[in-house]
Amino acid sequence: MTKTSTHLLDTKILGQAVAASFQKLDPRVQLRNPVMFAVYLGSILTTILWVQSLGEAAGTTGESSGFVLGIAAWLWFTVLFANFAEAIAEGHGKAQAASLKSSRMTVAAQRLSNLKGRVTEEVPATDLKLGDLVLVKAGETIPADGEVIEGVASVDESAITGESAPVVRESGGDRSSVTGGTRVISDWLIVEVKTLPGQSFLDRMIAMVEGAKRQKTPNEIALAILLAALTLIFLLVVATLLPYSVFSVQVSGQGRPISLTVLVALFVCLAPTTIGALLSAIGIAGMNRLSRANVLAMSGRAVEAAGDVDVLLLDKTGTITLGNRQATRFIPTAGIEERALAEAAHLASLADETAEGRSIAVLAKKQFGLRGRDLEQDQPTFVPFSARTRMSGVTIDGRAIRKGAAEAVETHVRTLGGFLPEDVRTAVQQIARGGGTPLVVSEDAKVLGVIELKDIVKGGIKERFAELRQMGIKTVMITGDNPLTAAAIAAEAGVDDFLAEATPEAKLMLIRDYQKGGRLVAMTGDGTNDAPALAQADVAVAMNSGTQAAKEAGNMVDLDSNPTKLIEIVNIGKQLLMTRGSLTTFSIANDVAKYFAILPAAFAATYPALKALDLMHLSSPASAILSAVIFNALIIIALVPLALKGVSYRPVGAAQLLRNNLLIYGLGGLVVPFVGIKVIDMLLAAVNLA
Amino acid sequence: MLHQLRAATVMFAALTVLTGVVYPLFISVVAQVAFPRQANGSLIQVDQRTVGSELIGQSFTKPEYFWGRLSATGPVPYNAAASGGSNFGPLHPDLKQAAETRIAALQTGGLRTKGIPVDLVTASGSGLDPHISPAAAEAQVARVVAARRMSEDTVRKLVRDHTEGRQLGILGEPRVNVLRLNLALDQHSRQ
Amino acid sequence: MTTNAVLQLSLALGLLLACVKPLGWHMAQVYSGQAPFFERFFGPFERWLYRAAGLGKCLEMSWRQYAFAVISLSLLSFVAVYALQRVQGWLPLNPAGLPAVSPDSSFNTAVSFTTNTNWQGYGGEATMSDLTQMLALTVQNFVSAAAGMAVLVALIRGFTRSTTNTIGNFWVDVVRGTLYILLPLSTVLAVALVSQGVVQSFSAPHQVTLLEPAVGVDGNLENTQSIAVGPVASQVAIKQLGTNGGGYFNANSAHPLENPTPLSNLLQLLAILLIPAALCHTFGEMVGDRRQGWALLAAMSVVFVPLLVLVVVAEQQGNPVLQNLGVGLAASDVQSGGNMEGKETRFGIVNSSLWAVATTAASNGSVNSMHDSYTPLGGLVPMWLMQLGEVIFGGVGSGLYGLLIFAIVTVFLSGLMVGRTPEYLGKKIGAFEMKMAALAILAPCAMVLLGAAIAVVSPAGTASIFNPGPHGFSEVLYAFSSASNNNGSAFAGLGANTPFYNGMLALTMLVGRFWVMLPVLAIAGSLAAKKTVPAGAGTLPTHTPLFVGLLVAVVVVVGALSFLPALALGPIVEHLSLPKSS
Questions:
Q1: Residue of C nearest to A667 (CA)
Q2: Do B173 and C126 count as a contact with CB atoms less than 8 A apart?
Q3: Which residues contact A415 (CB under 8 A, 6 or more apart)?
Q4: Residue B175 bridge partners (DSSP)
Q5: pLDDT digit string (tens) for B4-44?
Q6: C-alpha distances out from residue A163 to A1, A159, A182, A205, A290, Å
Q7: Which pLDDT belongs to residue C315?
Q8: How confident is the model at residue A202 (pLDDT cuts 50, 70, 90)?
Q9: Has residue A8 got a pLDDT over 60?
Q10: What confidence category does residue C421 fall into, taking pLDDT thresholds of 50, 70 and 90?
């Protein structure tokens, strides 16, 4: 997937959204949103009233048919604007889904009839069944999600992750999962089909992004209830206003009972249409923001839960520290030059392709300018690491150089008549206490010194954890290290807590413990052994590079396989809730001004004294009501960008956040409509519309 | 279900006896023993005759008596068997009319037209208000003096004697007990 | 306002505040099963009662059982109060020989007293025998109050308990509330009131020869005055403490034998607000964080005080109609001035206004002045305080559980605004709580609006209206606001003792009581079943001025948005139509 940079106002999406706004006028669609359905009914009612008013002399109802038409038209606009907001959010979602999908067009698959024979038949990918084996060669597209059974190949996953560097996929282990739609670049793979094309994990997620199967989240339901209750209250307020006004006309002996048109206008203005119109757009936009961050969520519920997370479980390796330990220091024993130690270590690591091994070579090069010699002539014999000796090394020019854990090397030199010097023993202990890993280097029976390997904490991670702490989220580092090492790294990275010597069971227990205490837990994982913990966690982000089991257990997949993404996900979740809350507040606060516009206008004839409530000094009763209705419609459009972008979130304490948002959306919601209605009224008066 | 209903019945019966019989009877015994006068209506006896309660106002219209608040009780004013106010809203025409009638009556006895004490032209909430404000008493002194041919000082002194300040120096409003004042006037006239 | 006005108001509120902590603490003890001092006297009786009622050992109820118990007690109460009124003519303790009360009035009164509304469609001294007043009305004053407090305590247990089905035992809560809170307080207050002149006697009305015959409207002369008395003090004490408000006499606490002196007035006023205010502290004690209780009390006060000042100022301003007749309205040392129509001289403007605000803030409904005769703004405030849902102090128990419902909505809204699923006192607020909260807020609102709408367009409804113009509309609106929110006070010009109003208002009171109580119990049950979430840095604290401010805003905005149009056609337009004083 090329990072979808769909602009908020992409013309194509805009055009489609406009068309969709009209398609959504279908009552079955409208019925899904009770607030807007009420407006919809109001639009129909006022349209009927307008048709009726055409046949009547202007005097009978006291209002011109032009006025009724104006109200009716703007109510329709209100409905259309709400449709538009939803449509444009869906449009963005669809655009993203489309770009995902383009990578997943039907391809031909080479199905293997059995593993031994290598006889293939070409079938359309759509005909594949679960458990089928397919052969994918260099240059071909992997037809479906599956597990590598045999072979090693580099695979271009840029269609999914946007990452151009190819990744290695091989049978067994954590790199065995392949995704349909990705391309094999070199070598070949035999893949067992794990999901049917079109129903694969990603397909399901894409469907989610498209909004086809979007379910309401718990908070959204609760908010919908609140909005429905408010709508009901205002419906009652408006409906009872008719008898009240009939009575008022009786006792005051002047004026006319309030007209149906004005009642409908008042109702639409009071009902929480702003948030009602934008509610589903906000939800869809939240999902979109997530997929823009290259994260696919199984459900909106998970996104919402992300905003609530109390505890983040983070794997040490790759998340908090750079992928692997690195050599940082050479400590020679007494009587040995540091350079000699470095040289020996360098030699011993030449054939060591592990990251640690490479880092030793890099350090040697950096500190002493040592380069890889052409060793062929020296006929070196490399001793690979074995679980039995727990050492690796090289024998060259008759020198047997070994490096390994202190105990292993000590045993090794003792058998040759050597010993472990005290200063080396001390250095080993110090390094271990400081969270590092000591590697002792020996040449024949003599110990040369120690290499210090350390975890390198990622730059800026401490600040991110501090941010999380401000948001009220506790970070817990998960590591297989011993408690001593773990504590040292935890302190350096600034996490709140750590779980050392973590086993999958210990991880699961930890999550359960936190949950029992009423906390919501988020974690990332990629391995199959993470699956139980991922399934248990409230927000579980699986790495796309991880195994199928891990992805199935989680409720989100990070296509970039970047564990720090969790922090971004939390932000997006919070933003989603905040946008809903802020716009609800704004919507309700707006009602105050609308009352002051409409009430005096509606009773201008019955109770002229109520003119005192017309704080805005609007030009006429008709224009006052029309202005309020127009404002109510336009504010929806005006807030669409905010709904799509989400209100900005800064990691500050809850109280500070509330104060800020109240100021902006509460106070703003009170003031803005006074200004807006007045301006619209002035414009209407200027063009003599009302 | 039956179990619950049994509980409800027993509880209701017990609470009824406790709060509807034991409690009021206990209070009555204590009241009658400790505060017999108050508990029975703070009645005023003159010559072994009950002439009223010091807490319940009476209707006065004769010029020689101080007049109390207007009373909206029916069928007669100050009907202590059916208390109540006028319930006139501020714009009710009858409110204005009642005030005008009262003002006219007060003016016959001689009264300046500005600053008539408001309590004299308005009805009390109970219709049984035994008090008027000191200002309202002062406004009537001239009429009573004229009607009774008593010295102004004597009348003023009687008014002063029957003026209560704020309770504990702070609570409520200063007030004059109209019935007690009129009884004192009558007694003074008889002497 | 005069210095004395400020002093009197401060004194009353200061005394109230001083009582909050000790009484709140005591009530928390009582409902937590500890009240050693009183248990020494009543413990054996209490235990005997539980045995007699067959409560057995298991004293815990689910919210449904609790609700069933509430309803069953209310139903029994209703039947008893209705029956007693209908047969009082044949029963003893009827010195005035009053006949049976009419069916519709009996129905209305039975509903009214069992729902803690104590709306009085009847005039007490001319309708109810001493026996009915004691056995039916006084009993309900205790029972309906104790039931309201019990439901509150059940809700509090919903907050404090974790992953359980039960929320306490209704009967235990009612009995302990009655024995250890309401009865001791009432006894002390009743005796204090008698000392001030409140009557407590079973004698027939005293016949008094008038100094000057009273002239009737038809010109008849009346030589005697019949002074009605009765067991008043015992009933008045609990009518105030239990936020019942149903007076012994028609004029309620304006009647000199029900409220004879400024001191008795102060005591009764304190009694009105005492338990609702102290329950805030009880709440804080029981949830283990006193600041939560103080925050709610602060929210109540923030609404209460400005409205109080508004009423005092409006009433002191007086009626320009009278001013234009040359009547002096300025306060001085020799008269209170202001709008004295419907007010008693001994209470003046300050104590009348304070009472009007207190009795409608708390869902008490007793009056010491006639609200119908208030200035438009002075009358608007009491009406609006009821329309807010009786949550500013409110009824005993019901006020606080009503405010807690608003707090739940506030928490929900603010939770969304800080990007976190809302939680209150460690309980996550979900769709079910919102549904129930919406129901509890919606029901009273709807009944006010619909009731008034039906009344003003039906001939039976408009026939009872007494005042002309928009004030007549206010009368109807006030009646339904009062009934729906279980207050009981009235713009008493409205002739409400008709089959139409007796029926409509009774229905309104039922909905207003139970359609709030049942959702509250449902919330209690649902909260009790939830886990308690520990507070973290991301949790919005609910004891801060910020939260208090937001809670107040939610209460006020919901109240304003729901009722502004109606109020505009009543008191607001009336205020704008007052003549200019010349």
A1: C553
A2: no
A3: none
A4: B164
A5: 888 999 999 999 999 999 999 999 999 999 999 999 999 99
A6: 9, 8, 12, 19, 17
A7: 97
A8: low
A9: no
A10: confident
Å from C410 to nearest chain A CA? 11
**Burial of B33: CB neighbours in 10 Å, binned 0-12, 13-18, 19+:** exposed
- Kindly state the average pLDDT of the residues B95-113: 88
- Crossing angle of helices A565-602 and A218-252, in 10° steps, is 10
Complex-level ipTM: 0.96
Cβ-defined contact of C343 to B124 (cutoff 8 Å): yes
Q: For strands A108-112 and A326-332, give the pairing.
A: unpaired
What are residue A557's DSSP bridge partners?
Answer: A296, A542
Which of C472, C538, C560 has its CB closest to that of A473? Answer: C538
Average pLDDT over all residues of chain C = 93
Q: What is the reported pLDDT for A1?
A: 35
CA-CA distance, C495 to A603, in Å (whole number)?
28
| Token pair listed for C295 | 């925050």
Nearest chain B alpha carbon to C134:
B20
Q: Give whole-number Cα distances, B20 to A603, B27, C183, in Å.
A: 52, 11, 11
Which positions ≥6 away from C356 have C-beta within 8 Å?
Answer: C311, C367, C369, C371, C374, C378, C381, C382
Taking alpha carbons only, the member of A183, A151, A152, A179 closest to residue A166 is A183
Where along chain B do its domains lie?
2-36, 42-190
pLDDT (average), residues C174-202? 96
- Please, are residues C231 and B63 in contact by the beta-carbon 8 Å criterion? no
Residues C538, C184 contacting (CB under 8 angstroms): no
Q: Closest residue of A to C439, CA-based?
A: A229
- Taken in order A315, A319, A320, A324, is the CA torsion positive or negative? positive
Asked whether the beta carbons of A388 and A369 are under 8 A apart, the reply is: no
Chain C residues touching residue A312 (CB < 8 angstroms):
none
Q: B173 at the C interface (CB within 8 A)?
A: yes
What is the per-residue pLDDT for B175?
Answer: 96
Distances (CA, A) of A656 to A47, A310, C202, C533, C540: 47, 18, 63, 21, 10
Question: Would you call C433 helix, strand, or coil by DSSP?
Answer: helix
Q: How many CB atoms lie within 10 A of CB B115?
A: 16
**Among A518, A659, A665, whose Cβ lies nearest the Cβ of C534?**
A518
Nearest CA in chain C to B11: C53
CB-based contact C571:C474 (threshold 8 Å): yes
Which helix (H) or strand (E) segment holds residue C210: the answer is strand C206-215
Assess C1–A contact: CB distance below 8 Å, yes or no. Answer: no
Inform me whether the pLDDT recorded for C443 exceeds 90. yes
Q: Which residues of A are catalytic?
A: 315
| Most confident by average pLDDT, B69-83, C416-430, C448-462, C524-538 | C448-462
Is the pLDDT score of A181 beyond 80? Answer: no
Nearest-CA neighbor of A572 among A300, A316, A311? A300
pLDDT tens digits, one per residue of C74-107 = 999 999 999 999 999 899 888 888 899 999 999 9
Task: Give the domain ranges of chain C.
Answer: 3-206+227-576
Which of helix, strand or coil describes residue A486? helix
- The sign one gets for the Cα dihedral C548, C550, C555, C559 is positive
Chain B residues in contact with C238 by the CB 8 A cut-off are: 19
Restricting to B residues 12-71, those with a Cβ less than 8 Å away from any Cβ of C are 12, 14-16, 18-21, 23-24, 26-28, 30-32, 34-35, 38-43, 49-53, 55-62, 65, 69
Pick from C431, C449, C536: which is nearest to A310 by CB?
A: C536
A391-411 mean pLDDT? 85
d(CA C237, CA C182): 10
Going by pLDDT thresholds of 50, 70 and 90, the confidence category of residue C556 is: very high
pLDDT at A374: 56
